[in-house]
């Protein structure tokens, strides 16, 4: 079991299906030591009946890391929360925000906002089984439930379980008529609703998610809420993470350079390749590291065109780095 560092959710990296796997999280941790990382959503069925090692294994270097669960059966969720504690996670989070038809059919995700009493019971069942923080991620509303009173009823009901951390995606979800992709952009953002929630429930930890793209925006939002969660922006532009520890936590150490990050990640790749991991499973997460710098497009192309090939090894990354110019090409020893 890994040691659990103390959680400080001032800055968190969102759970993202097909993206925030263990290789992605290891890469992100090289950029920020303080951000709290979240797994992809894992369903209770996958953990109870599937390959638990595949879904729960993580490198101790990823800490602090939280497991996000998808499900609606209190006892199944409680059992999976126990798995999270046994495997050394720092937090268990319930997904009540995903709008996809696939998870709705399994009574998972944003559709649960229509059943706050069930969500409360799920949270209570998990909290009774583990010593970890049990938290929730949800929308500001669903379909025609888009008024502030509806949001408050949901939060107050869930809070009866003892839950004190609410990660709020500041968009409602249209469960009928919009695709999951459209639900990330079309419903308008309403940060004011989330800020009001914090003002009126100051005893709760309120973290805002949705549409955040800069550190300046993070700082403004942190004047009104307890934490911020970023997802797509840090995946597309991961070096944004390198400024988190200094900007939002006040750490005195300078941020790591891209070259330092790449040197350490290449060492990780060599270890993973020796275990049989395919190179493209590792490198797909780093394509945006040099975004905006000379040679970034050539760097991405070299990896995209070659990392998937049979037998591809570390030489693909070495050649990709050779496409960069100036300081970006240097590879000092990892600090």
Describe the structure.
Belongs to the Dus family. DusA subfamily. Belongs to the dus family. Its EC number is 1.3.1.91. 40% of the residues lie in helices and 13% in strands. With 335 residues, it is an alpha/beta fold. It has two domains: 239 residues, TIM Barrel, CATH 3.20.20.70; 72 residues, Four Helix Bundle (Hemerythrin (Met), subunit A), CATH 1.20.120. Helix 4 runs parallel beside helix 6 and helix 6 runs parallel beside helix 7. The two termini are 26 Å apart. The C terminus is likely disordered.
Total helical segments = 15
Low-confidence spans: pLDDT under 50, at least 5 residues? 331-335
Specify the overall morphology: globular
CATH architectural arrangement of the largest domain: Alpha-Beta Barrel
**Quick one: how many beta strands?**
8
Element pattern in H and E: EHEHHEHEHHEHEHEHEHHHHHH
Count of folded domains:
2
The CATH superfamily name of the largest domain is Aldolase class I
CATH topology descriptor of the largest domain = TIM Barrel
CATH class of the largest domain: Alpha Beta
Biggest β-sheet description:
8 strands, parallel, barrel
Percent range for β-strand residues: 5-15%
End-to-end separation in angstroms reads 26 Å
Oligomer: single chain
Radius of gyration, whole Å: 20 Å
Helix content: 40-55%
Q: What is the averaged pLDDT score?
A: 92
- In which order are the strands of the major sheet placed? 1-2-3-4-5-6-7-8
């Amino acid at each position: 079991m890994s040691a659990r560092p103390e959680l400080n959710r001032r800055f968190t990296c969102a759970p993202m299906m097909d993206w925030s796997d263990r290789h992605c999280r290891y890469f992100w941790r090289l950029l920020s030591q303080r951000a709290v990382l979240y797994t992809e959503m894992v369903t209770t069925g996958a953990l109870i009946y599937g390959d638990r090692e595949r879904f729960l294994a993580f490198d101790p270097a990823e800490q602090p890391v939280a497991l996000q669960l998808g499900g609606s059966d209190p006892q199944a969720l409680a059992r999976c929360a126990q798995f999270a504690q046994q495997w050394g996670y720092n937090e268990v989070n319930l997904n009540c925000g995903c709008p996809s038809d696939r998870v709705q059919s399994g009574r998972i995700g944003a559709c649960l906002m229509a059943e706050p009493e069930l969500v409360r019971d799920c949270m209570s069942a998990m909290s009774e089984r583990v010593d970890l923080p049990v938290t929730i991620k949800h929308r500001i509303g669903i379909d025609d439930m888009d008024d502030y009173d509806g949001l408050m009823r949901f939060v107050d009901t869930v809070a009866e379980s003892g839950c004190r951390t609410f990660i709020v995606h500041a968009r409602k979800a249209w469960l009928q008529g919009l695709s999951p992709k459209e639900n990330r952009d079309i419903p308008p953002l309403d940060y004011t609703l989330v800020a009001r929630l914090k003002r009126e429930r100051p005893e709760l930890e309120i973290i805002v998610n949705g549409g955040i793209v800069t550190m300046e925006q993070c700082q403004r939002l942190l004047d009104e809420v307890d934490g911020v969660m970023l997802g797509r922006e840090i995946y597309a532009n991961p070096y944004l993470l390198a400024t988190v520890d200094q900007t939002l936590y006040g750490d005195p150490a300078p941020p790591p350079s891209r070259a330092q990050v790449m040197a350490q990640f290449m060492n990780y790749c060599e270890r993973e390749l020796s275990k049989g991991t395919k190179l493209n499973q590792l490198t797909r997460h780093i394509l945006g590291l040099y975004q905006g710098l000379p040679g970034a497009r050539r760097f991405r192309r070299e990896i995209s065109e070659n990392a998937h090939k049979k037998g591809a090894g570390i030489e693909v990354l070495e050649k990709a780095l050779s496409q960069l110019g100036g300081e970006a090409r240097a590879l000092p020893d990892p600090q």
